[in-house]
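Page 42, continued from yesterday. The earlier attempt failed because a stray header line got pasted into the input along with the sequence. Redoing it now with the clean sequence only.
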Amino acid sequence: MSKPTLLIVAHGSRRQASNDEVRTLASNLSAVRHADIGEVEVAFLELAEPSIAEGLANCVGKGAREIVVFPYFLAAGTHVAQDIPEEIEAFRAQHPHIRVLVTPHLGAAPSLPHAILGLVAPGEALAA
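This time it went through. Structure tokens are written below.
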């Protein structure tokens, strides 16, 4: 059985360097070789390519039977609450044989406060 493909969905930017940061993140995640994740791909909501629909199609084109979508957003605004779920539902309607799971967005990660404190207060012990 193949491992699920991780699809990182970011907003997208007119600034190419910002989009490249997301691509670099995907590359770095791929290098980790996690036991539960296969390929790592990216898609963008707007202003950059591939679109979410294209990103999902790329995953299927590479053989994915299961896709884990990770919304790379800090807050649960309209994009997280409405736009991304609508894109996923449209894909599911066209590809009912592909399992698509959507994780909570980045801002909802329980480890995010520790990651932030690790950046702003390096060397200090973090209290749980």
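Notes: The chain is about 40% helix and 15% strand.
Reminder to self: strip header lines before submitting.
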